[in-house]
Write the structure tokens for this entry.
Amino acid sequence: MQIFRYIVARCLHAVPVLLGVTIVVFLSIHLVPGDPIRIMMHGRIADSEVAKIYHDLGMDRPILLQYVVFLKNALVGDLGMSLIQKAPVAVLVVEKLWPTLMLLAFSTALSILIAVPLSLLAAFRRNTWLDTAIRLGSIFGFAMPSYWIGLLLMLFFGLLLGWLPISGLGDTPLDQLRHLFMPSLTIAFFLAPILLQSLRSAMLDVLTSEHIEVARAKGLSEWRILIKHVLRNAMIPVITVLAVNISWLLSGAVVVEYVFGLPGLGSLLVRSVGYRDYPLIQGLAFVFGVLVVIVNLLADLSYMLIDRRVLRS
Amino acid sequence: MTQPLLAIEDLTVGFHTPHGSVLANKHLTLTVAAGETLGIVGESGSGKSVLCRAILRLLPSPPAEITAKSLAFAGRDLLKLKPAEMRKIRGQDIAMVFQNPMTSLNPVWPIGDQVSEGLRIHRGLGRAAARQVAIDILKRVGIPSAALRVDDYPYQWSGGMMQRAVIAMAMTGQPKLLLADEPTTALDVTIQDQILSLLMELQRETGMAIILVSHDMSVVSETCDRVAVMYAGSIVELGVAADILSAPLHPYTWSLLRSIPHLDAPTGRLATIGGQPPDLARLEPGCPFAPRCPVASAECRALPIALKTLPGDRATACHFPERVAQLDQRAAS
């Protein structure tokens, strides 16, 4: 019952945030300096034509009314028409959503697989050369720019060894995983160090708790203490870090998608900005916003699985 | 005489700090017989808790350094055991109950799971069997409807219940020696009494020995067979509880006893011990209590002091134990 109440409460919390997203996205086009229509047409357009386009798009109506129309349309999945591709924005976005989501899920999983064992090792051998080596290595990975790592990986695994495809997205699910491996690894180079460092320091923090001494007095081994009594407690702050960074990666993956020629939202965003396709940019911003809200909702729900104390409130 | 359960001989625990080495326990020698209750009293920082942790070898090294002629438990020198052998003793032969029940349990695991964890590790019990043992033992320590509450999380329990759970956890291994490090300090007075009674009951049933650390003289007088009084890392007085409480032979013990307020005594300022406990990093050569002692003389500050045995199974670390009797006379007049 408590669990059900918690889930409902978390979902309800997301609603005002989503409304906020729609307001910001809606206003963004009105905050663009200058006249979007004139900019789009590079100024080669008569005033009467501009006025006609404004009228056709409903942009001469009161702003509040425009927002209500935008919101109503957004609710039924209508995000307007792309000016360049002459197709519904929603269709274009959904088409490219899948590769981006796969990329994010794959790179998050890879990062966790890399960060958790290494941080356990660093915490177990804290303040030894091994700990220092792991931390230095992670900073090294973190410091290298994504496009550089991406190119190096392509060169090594793709061209030199010929193990993995260097661009595009395959057809069968297995083939897609093969195509997504290098882009995901590139992102993991950035994400895993963040997880590793925060997990390590959270674990060292938990290690000073009194219940750890109680566990030692019970005769548990250091490894069992780390895995059972430290890791789970240390995950709580790290989930927050993970959620924030996945949200950030949504747009941060743009470069990686571009380098590896993945047909995802990032590549679409870069192109639509290049063409100044405002409805498409708006639609993409809206989708990114919604995804961020969903990621954070998932983080909230996973707290519940790890630490029942969140059910108290 | 039969072999004592625990025989500590010349135990010294030092901590290396940036400001030099600090001795938290100095040349401690004491024994605990099977089934007896030894009380350890003293102010904060006198080394009581360090002693418990040294026995279980829970102090991280570095910075701690433990040396002793012997630290024998049931004939085995604990200091010579390998880490894996030591782990088999912890929670099985020697268990420990800690001061603060609110932080003694891991907040993210169910209580029953933590209570029976030792059994799963040491005796290879299955999940279902371990859960049943947890229910039985929680029932034994007085948790009502234990079968329903075994899967609760610590935040759902009160401090007194949690301390019962911690005691249950310590009892799962049927220990021969229980180290109770101020088990009632964090609890309110009525609960304190229940927890102490529970410990005594469990002792009668199992015949385990208890080392009860406390700074509360009344707790010690109610429960302990023998008492060791600690000051600045050393034992300053050792003997049968009734003897020490009725006729102390160290001015520090005398001062501690005098500072207990009595219900029938006229109200006024409570008796205190003037001054501060000494800084363990900067001890004078003489008796560490001399600066605060009401009957100290020049020799006390100059002559090094050690625990000396007196007739009647007593020992004191005072150069002039006969002066304590004068204190009583002085206080009476």
